[in-house]
Amino acid sequence: MSGAALGLEIVFVFFLALFLLHRYGDFKKQHRLVIIATLLAWYLCFLIVFILPLDVSTTIYNRCKLAVNSSPAENNGSYVTLAPSKEKCFKPWSYIPNGIMPIFWRVVYWTSQFLTWILLPFMQSYARSGGFSITGKIKTALIENAIYYGTYLLIFGAFLIYVAVNPNFNLQWNQLQTIGIAAANTWGLFLLVLLLGYGLVEIPRSHWNGAKRGYLLMKTYFKAAKLMTEKADAEENLEDIMEEVRKVSESIKYNHPLRKCVDTILKKCPTEYQERMGRNMDDYEDFDERQNSYPSEKSLVKLHKQVIYSVQRHRRTQVQWQILLEQAFYLEDVAKNETSATRQFVHTFHSQEPENKIIQYFYTPTVEWYWECLLRPWFYRVLAVVLATFSVIVVWSECTFFSTKPVLSLFAVFIQLAEKTYNYIYIEMACFLTIFFLSICVYSTVFRIRVFNYYYLASHHQTDAYSLLFSGMLFCRLTPPLCLNFLGLTHMDATISHKNTQPTAYTSIMGSMRVLSFIADGFYIYYPMLVVILCIATYFSLGTRCLNLLGFQQFMGDSEMTSDLIDEGKELIRREKRKRQRQEEGENRRREWKERYGNRDDSTRNRVVHTDQKESSFSETNTNRPLSKYTRSNGRTERDRIELLQDAEPLDFNADSIIDDPLESDSGR
C-alpha cells in the first residue's frame, strides 16, 4: 500500500475540484484557459488539505523509527524523542516513502504561489478586457497589473531592507526565500482569521435555522424581492447597452474599417437582439467619413466590455430567479404537507427536469414526506449542535495553542494521545476532520461573500471568468497559512511546540520562521486570538447591522425594511405561482383536446373512407337510388366538421407574449 493512498487521494481530489468547477463555471461558454487555470488552483488547494494528514502520520512513524534505531548518544542531541518498543513502531498503511513528500510539497506550493501572484491576476485583467485582439488584451492586462505588481514588490522590498540592515542576519538565498514565504503567509493569515471567524458561527447557525421552515420561507421571500430589483435593473441596463450597440451598428457600415469590431460586439449580444438589429441593417449604404462622426476604437473597446458584463449579469439574474421560484414553491409545498393526513408529499407543480428513475423508485412520496416534514428538521438540529461543538473547540484551541506546558489545545491533546499508542488510523482521521472543518469554514465563506457585482460565485454555471479566477487566487493565498495554523493547533510545528523534533515535510519547505522573529513569535501566535472577537461580532450580526444602516438591505427579523421586502417578495411569488398555474392549465387543456378529438378524428376518417368505398360500389349497381348521394354528402359534412374542430385550439392568455421591443422604441429614450 506504499504510496497507494497518495495516488487515490490525488485522483479523488481532482474529480472533486472538477465537479465543483462544473457547478459554478460554464465549460461551453468560458475560455479554456480560464477553466484550466481555475481548476488547477482549486485542485492544488484541495490537494494540500487532503494530503496533509498523510504527511502527519508519516512524520510520526519516522520519529518512532528514528527513536528505535538510534540511541541518544548517536543522535548527539539532534532530536529529542521517546524510545518506544519495536512492536509498537509499525509502518502505517498510508506510509509515503522518504523523499516523495518534500518534492511533492515543493511543486504544489510554488505552483500555487505562481498562480496566485502572477498568472491569475494577469488572466483576470485579460478576461475583463474589452479588446478585440490578443495583443490589445495583453496590453490592457499589463497596464492594469503594473500598480498591482508594484505594490507587492514594495512590500517585499521593505522586508528585504529590514533583514539586510539588521546586523544579526547574514542574507542568504534560503533566508530570502523564507522572507517571501513569510510575507505571503502573513497576508494570508490576516485574511484567514477574518473568514474563519465568520464561518465558525455562521455555518452552525445556518444549519440550525435550516430546521425552521417559517424562517427559510421568509428569507426566500426576502431574497425574491431583492432579486427582482436586481433583475429589473439588469434588464434595463441591458436595454440601454443594446440601444447603444444599435446606434453604433447603424452608423458604422459594412465597408468601414471598424466594422469587424462591431460584428464582434454583435456576436456577444443575445440572439433576439441580433435578429432585430439584422433587420434594421442597411449595408448597401457606404460610409462617408466627411459627413458623419464615427466612434473611435477606444470607445468600441469600452462598449464591448459593457456588453460582456451586461449580458452575463442579465443571464445570471434570469437563471437565479427561476431557481429561487422553485425553492419558494417547494418550501410552500412543505408547509402545506406538514398537516397532511395521508402522509404523502404532494407537489403543486411537477418538476420541469426529468427525474432519475432509481431515485424516483426509492424516494417515493411517502419517504419524501417523512424526510421533509419529520426527519430533516431534527437532522439539521443535531448537525448544527455537532458543528457548534467543533467551533467551540477551534476557538478554544486558537486561543491556547501556544501553551505547551500544560498542553491546552484540544487538537494537540488528541494527536499526542494517539501518538503514544501509534494508532495511525485515529491520527489520520483526527487530522482530516480538523483540517476539513477549518477548510469548510474558510472556503464556504469565500463561496458566500459577494463584493457588489465584481466578485460573486453563482451556482448553476452562472459565475463569470473574473470571479472564478479571483476565487482561485483566494484559495491559493489562504491554504498555506491554513495548513500552518492546523499544524500549530496540533503542535506538529516545531515553532509552536518548541521541541527539537523531526518536522513534517510541509513545514520543512517553509523554512525556519526564526529569520523574522517578530512574525514567528508575535503575529503567528497572538493574531489568531482575534477569532474570538470576530465570532462574537458574527453571533450578534454586527456586520449585517452595519450594512443595513449603510443602505444595503440585509435579512433582519426586527427590521421594518425587512418586513416590507418580505411582503413584497410574497406577493411576487404568489403572482408567479398564479401565472404558472394558468400555463399548466392551458397545457392540460390542449393535451386533453388532442387526446379526445385526435383519436375521434382518426376513427372518423377511417369510417368515412370505408363508407365512401361501399357507397361508390353501391351507386354503381343501384344508380336509381338517391340515398347514396345523401350518404356521401353527410359523410363529407361530418368529416369537414371534425377537421374544423381539430384545427381550433383553446386560447390561453400569456402575459409574456406581449413584449415591447426595446430596440424598436424611440431612440431618444
TrEMBL record:
Keywords: Coiled coil, Membrane, Transmembrane, Transmembrane helix. Residues 618-634 have a biased composition (Polar residues). It is found in: Membrane. GO terms for cellular component: membrane. It comes from the Eukaryota. Signal peptide: none annotated. This is LMBD2 protein.
